[in-house]
């Protein structure tokens, strides 16, 4: 069976958009043309790839498998075309990034503002998310996450130094509840937890001592997916909260939050920009990696 590359490209757009109409709009053709292309592809393959309803389109098991398998190849083709077409001109186009909400150094503003100013023909599309997914299958050029959770087959470029998690609370809370001497005592304190998404368990509070890591199963009285709200609640004296040291730094410097249990909070590898290994790196992504390396070099200098 000789593959119809144009039909496969249409299928990938349908898979990304979950809509015939949205895929048609991106292609500049009619919805009917997309529907007919999909019907021919399914007839050629002898299996249904999408489920159609009056309101939505979803992938069948076969469609999901095909989309996952095609995503890296489609990304390579797009990068190769962009690389070949970029000779003699500045990097341009949309650069889609999926960034962890706690990547403070990357999201602070100056780093991205400097990049946008240096490459005005690149349009940054940044999704701040803590959900775990395949960035290639979802159509992103790269992501930013903690190094410890990035797959080994990805290329990773550092965007921060070593990180540290910290337990903090307001001085008023300490006066009222007392200072815990060991993480195990946190189970007797009021705690404010964080979760990355609805219906996901709260983030574990992990500590370390003498090279040994351990987690404490706190039962948060308040749980949220909003780091800013978590910090406001802690400042207001609602309890002890736990997260990245950088997230709390401003309030600690103001004296509105106090770090506790610091001897149980070791440092670890920080945040990285990551993307799949491929021979043809898109110029827009290469521009970002070069910008990050230059910025990091300047910070060390």
Question: Could you please describe the fold and organization of this structure?
Answer:
The N and C termini lie far apart (about 60 Å). The chain is of the alpha/beta class and about 300 residues long. Strands 7, 8, 11, 12, 13 and 14 form a 6-stranded mixed sheet that branches. It contains 10 helices and 15 strands. A hairpin with a 4-residue loop joins strand 1 (about 50) and strand 2 (about 55-60).
Which helices and strands occur, and which strands form pairs?
Layout (H helix, E strand, L loop, with lengths): L4 H13 L2 H8 L3 H15 L4 E3 L4 E3 L1 H25 L7 E7 L4 H4 L2 H9 L3 E7 L13 E5 L7 E5 L4 E7 L1 H7 L13 E4 L10 E5 L2 E5 L5 E3 L2 H9 L4 E5 H9 L4 E3 L6 E2 L2 E6 L6 H18 L1
Parallel strand pairs: 3-4, 3-5, 8-11, 8-12
Antiparallel strand pairs: 1-2, 5-15, 6-15, 7-12, 7-13, 7-14, 9-10
Helix pairs in contact: 1-2, 1-3, 1-4, 2-3
Which short descriptors sum up this protein?
WH-like_DNA-bd_sf; single chain; WH_DNA-bd_sf; alpha/beta; 301 residues; six-stranded mixed beta sheet; five-stranded mixed beta sheet; transcription; 39% helix; DNA-binding; LysR family transcriptional regulator
């Amino acid at each position: 069976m000789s593959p119809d590359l144009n039909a496969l490209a249409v299928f990938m757009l349908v898979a990304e958009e979950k809509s015939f109409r949205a895929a048609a709009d991106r292609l500049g053709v009619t919805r009917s043309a997309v529907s007919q292309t999909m019907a021919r592809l399914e007839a050629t393959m002898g299996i249904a790839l999408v489920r159609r309803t009056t309101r939505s389109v979803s992938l069948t098991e076969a469609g999901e498998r095909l989309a996952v398998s095609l995503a890296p190849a489609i990304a390579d083709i797009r990068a190769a075309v962009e690389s070949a077409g970029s000779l003699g001109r500045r990097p341009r186009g949309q650069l889609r990034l999926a960034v962890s909400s706690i990547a403070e150094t990357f999201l602070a503003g100056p780093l991205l503002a400097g990049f946008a100013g240096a490459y005005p023909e690149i349009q940054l599309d940044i999704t701040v998310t803590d959900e775990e997914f395949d960035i290639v299958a979802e159509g992103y050029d790269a992501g930013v996450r903690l190094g410890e959770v990035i797959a080994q087959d990805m290329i990773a470029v550092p965007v921060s130094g070593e990180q540290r998690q910290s337990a903090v609370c307001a001085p008023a809370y300490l006066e009222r509840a007392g200072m815990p001497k060991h993480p195990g005592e946190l189970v007797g304190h009021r705690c404010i937890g964080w979760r990355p998404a609805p219906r996901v368990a709260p983030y574990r509070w992990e500590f370390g001592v003498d090279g040994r890591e351990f987690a404490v199963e706190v039962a948060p009285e308040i749980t949220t997916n909003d780091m800013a709200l978590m910090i406001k609640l802690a400042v207001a004296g609602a309890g002890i909260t736990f997260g990245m040291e950088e997230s709390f730094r401003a309030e600690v410097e103001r004296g509105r939050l106090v770090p506790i249990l610091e001897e149980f909070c070791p440092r670890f590898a920080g945040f990285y920009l990551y993307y799949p290994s491929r021979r043809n790196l898109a110029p827009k992504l290469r521009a970002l990696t070069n910008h990050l390396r230059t910025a990091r070099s300047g910070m060390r200098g």
